[in-house]
Amino acid sequence: MPPYSQAATVSHGVANAADPKAAKPRKYVSIDGVEYDVTDFKHPGGSVINYMLTSLGADATETFNEFHMRSKKAKLVLKSLPKRIAQGGRDFANKKEQELLEAFKQFRQELTRDGFFDTNVSHVVMRVAELAAIFALGLYLFSLPGLLFKALSVLTLGLFGARCGWLQHEGGHNSLTGKMWVDKRIQRAFIGFGLGSCGSMWNSMHEKHHTTPQKINYDMDLDTVPLVAFFDTAIEKNRARSHSKWWMRFQAYTFLPVTSGLFVMLFWLFYLHPRKVLREKSWEQGLWMLSSHTVRPYLMASVSGLGFWQCYGLHWVSLWVAGQYLFGHFSLSHTHTDTVDEDKFKNWVEFAVHHTVDINPQNPLINWVMGYLNCQVVHHLFPNMPQYKQPEVSKRLARFCKENGLQYTAISYWEAWKRTFKNLDESGTTTSPWVEARERERERERNARMDVGAMATTRGGLLAAEWLTSLIMFSTMSSAGHHGDTARQYVVAIGVIMWLLTSALAASYLLTLQHDLPTIHLDHQGPVLQITGKLSIELVYYALFSFLSLVAFFCAAAHAHGSGAAAASAFFGVVLAAATGASCVLTYRDLADDLSGGPQLNPGQPASVSQPSQF
Questions:
Q1: Element (H, E) at 378
Q2: At 508, phi and psi to the nearest 5?
Q3: What pLDDT, on the 0 to 100 scale, is given for residue 555?
Q4: What local confidence, expressed as pLDDT, does residue 572 receive?
Q5: Better-predicted residue by pLDDT, 178 or 208
Q6: Closest among 505, 508, 517, 515 to 611, alpha carbons compared
Q7: For residue 395, what pLDDT is reported?
Q8: What's residue 379's pLDDT?
Q9: Which residues contact 92 (CB under 8 A, 6 or more apart)?
Q10: Rounded CA gap, 415 and 166, in Å?
Q11: Can the peptide bond before residue 226 be classed as cis, meaning omega within 30 degrees of 0?
Q12: DSSP bridge partners of 215
């Protein structure tokens, strides 16, 4: 028995006291009937290896073979790990599963023999040339005068960013050139420049989705509460996270423009992905990400004569478009399918076939629009296969599934959208008794702290709107009028200050910092104004900037005649005033709801200041 004897080893996480390394439970993964000890192994792909532990009932044979098909290093590392022969060989759930996986192995061998895993460099060159042409077209449209061309340019540059997402995704799977080092460089360049994001972070999250699609508490694409709930018990399965019942009820309407375009993009670009770069000290990825925030606005400014900050604001609008395009299409192929309970495990083939769908795989236009990810079942079975070959494989897969009793699902593009939004609507309005009980409890207690869940509330949406509109307002006004114009300077100053403050508020929410400032208990006199509650500095902020937004609007409106930039700035000033005004009302309402539990001040009682309560 190599290389441990049975007495010197441990089984399925049970430590052996005679083993000097047995201070902690041992972890094993089973591959081709051999159990490998991964307790002390630092997996380059991150914690996804814990999804395949033998103690969970998992077998990692197909997972390892498909993920590491092109990696010689991975196979050498596997051989170097401590191992033992699994008793009885590979453990199948039943004879039917054994026959299915044997048939899948033969199916894969046929595809390999017929060249479906062979890469084509000319196809990669064509994809890169296509992206270069789209980007060049976007810059050309941006150089033309008029708001219509600017709008068309923003949409084109948004398409560029989204299609960079398709290319980097394939680079992350090493299916572009087949050379891992080259593919990873392509991925980092295009996800960094095109989307301002980090390739390593994407891979870490995406591999968990591939390993166990639609498995609760495993699939990262389902780990989305409080921003969005993709299945009916999503809220109950994430009890530790706060959420807004009202937000969930309307999530089908906010999923694309707010959740995908704003929340996810802001969270990724300003927190999650930069944090990954800093932790890994991956300066190559950091430089590509920085180029998205600097080089792209600079090129836009160079061809149009507009100011850098104005172009940066419009660059963010293009990222908003890209976010909707990307995350909307990613959701079409699996979020509406059945989920798998966290205590159940399926084999590689059943996970892929029964919990993803293909979408018009024989339609060339849909293949282009979705970057071949409409062949999602094929892609999940063979993630290292060049994706442009998958439409042809889908024909063979349909026969394979029929012969082996599997339910292969292929639907139309519009049916996929219909199912996705129907699922969002139904999941958002389904409320379990546990959720209702928690809602009643929260109404009594009124949390004094806001975490990432607050970004999925009405006030979170308003904050995102304030952040974006203040950015656009001052960036557009910065190029209007003369530099010595006082009114213009007022608009720019108000916009910059509001953008910085809303950025700070958003960062505090995302970092789960205490957002409440000290509460002021006001002195009051007489029966007319019965001020018996408390006033937050946050309320003062919203009231003040609601007024200043109107000032900015009037200043910009004074320049609106004959100036498209000033007119646009005036429009966003009105939007900003409305958003801050709504935030002011909501903040006052929250404070008013707390009056019964807050300090009761008698007329003439001195004012005081107290710190917010803590959990």
A1: helix 376-381
A2: -65, -35
A3: 76
A4: 79
A5: 178
A6: 517
A7: 94
A8: 94
A9: 98, 101
A10: 22
A11: yes
A12: 340
pLDDT of 529 reads 34
Torsion over CA of 111, 112, 116 and 118, rounded to 10 degrees?
180
The amino acid at residue 344 is K
Lowest model confidence (mean pLDDT) among 224-233, 373-382, 396-405, 503-512: 503-512
How long is the chain? 615
Residue 73: count other Cβ atoms within 10 Å of its Cβ. Answer: 10
Tell me how far CA of residue 326 lies from CA of 344, 364, 608, in angstroms: 30, 18, 50
User: Sheet containing 519-521: which strands, arranged edge to edge?
Assistant: 535-536, 519-521, 608-610
Count of other CB atoms within 10 angstroms of residue 70 = 17
What pLDDT digit, counting tens, does each position of 69-80 carry?
788 888 888 888
Q: Do 254 and 247 contact (CB within 8 A), yes or no?
A: yes
Instruction: Return all residues near 229 (Cβ < 8 A) that are at least 6 apart.
Output: 235, 248, 251, 427, 428
Measure the CA–CA gap between 502 and 565, rounded to whole angstroms. Answer: 23
SS (H, E, C) 254-292: HHHHHHHHHHHHHHHHHHHHHHHHHHHCCHHHHHHHHHH
CA distances from 432 to 216, 218, 381, 422, 456 (A): 17, 22, 35, 19, 19
| Structural tokens at position 504 | 């700070």
Least confident of 196-200, 440-444, 608-612: 608-612
Per-residue burial over 81-104, b = 16 or more CB atoms within 10 Å of its CB, e = otherwise = bbbbebeeeeeeeeeebeebbeeb
CA distance 480 to 485: 10
- Helical H runs in 409-536? 413-429, 433-445, 458-477, 486-510
How far CA 314 is from CA of 155, 286, 488, 553, in Å, comes to 10, 22, 19, 19
Where would I find the H helices in 446-485?
458-477
Stretch 288-296: mean pLDDT, rounded? 96
Which tokens hold the place of 486? 């006082």
As a whole-number percent, the residues of the chain with pLDDT over 90 amount to: 38
Per-position DSSP letters for 331-346, written without gaps between them: HTTTTTSPPB-TT---
pLDDT in tens, 96-142: 888 898 999 999 999 999 999 999 999 999 999 999 999 999 999 99
Name residue 85's beta-bridge partners: 34
Q: Three-state DSSP class for 152? A: helix
Q: Does the pLDDT of residue 154 top 70, yes or no?
A: yes
pLDDT confidence of residue 515: 41
Confidence of residue 91 (pLDDT cuts 50, 70, 90): low
Task: Give whole-number Cα distances, 63 to 74, 179, 221, 382, 481, in Å.
Answer: 13, 20, 18, 10, 61
